Amino acid sequence: KAGVKDYKLTYYTPDYETKDTDILAAFRVTPQPGVPPEEAGAAVAAESSTGTWTTVWTDGLTSLDRYKGRCYHIESVVGEENQYIAYVAYPLDLFEEGSVTNMFTSIVGNVFGFKALRALRLEDLRIPTAYSKTFQGPPHGIQVERDKLNKYGRPLLGCTIKPKLGLSAKNYGRAVYECLRGGLDFTKDDENVNSQPFMRWRDRFVFCAEAIYKAQA
């Protein structure tokens, strides 16, 4: 098709030797009919890194060879028709330090609707030590948590408040109080809880703080 790149020419590099600092991803790829597996794997590498469907003049303003993802190996999935594992290497400089969001936005956020593919799934991911070290980690460990709670010599016990959605802030605070008075050390919000109309985070904070002080009385 006129004006459309052949990704395989740039992003399929079977001779590439991976580096210890590369982020490595394994994708299960099902190409569209007529699309070679090497082209499908290269398309994943391209669209999750520096690739664009056509050549643009600004390509010449950067070193695409330095920042591009590379599909360095393709293998058939045993027992599955037209399914392949595409191995892609990403240079470390492609990602913001200490940002899982940025990394996954690139690797799995921009390729799953790609037209060259009938199906795509991320099967495995290797994150190098060099990237892991850019994360600051928690500000303190279990000992500080025990000191704050004044609980020693046993596991800390907690729960997630349920139902996870639909409680008012007042009833949420009531549930927190009952949990703490019943002997739990802590409660936590479900990951679906943010600041929805039925329970704004500020109201939840106020009622939970009240529940904590009341439970400690």
UniProtKB/TrEMBL annotation:
Q: What is its main location?
A: plastid
User: Which key words tag this protein in UniProt?
Assistant: Calvin cycle, Carbon dioxide fixation, Chloroplast, Disulfide bond, Lyase, Magnesium, Metal-binding, Monooxygenase, Oxidoreductase, Photorespiration, Photosynthesis, Plastid
Q: Where is the Ribulose bisphosphate carboxylase large subunit ferrodoxin-like N-terminal domain?
A: 11-131
Metal-binding: is it a keyword of this entry? yes
Q: What are the EC numbers?
A: 4.1.1.39
Q: Where is the Ribulose bisphosphate carboxylase large subunit C-terminal domain?
A: 141-217
Catalysed reaction(s)?
2 (2R)-3-phosphoglycerate + 2 H(+) = D-ribulose 1,5-bisphosphate + CO2 + H2O; D-ribulose 1,5-bisphosphate + O2 = 2-phosphoglycolate + (2R)-3-phosphoglycerate + 2 H(+)
The record's cofactor note says:
Binds 1 Mg(2+) ion per subunit.
What is the protein's given name? Ribulose bisphosphate carboxylase large chain
Taxonomy, top ranks, is:
Eukaryota, Viridiplantae, Streptophyta, Embryophyta, Tracheophyta
Gene behind this protein: rbcL
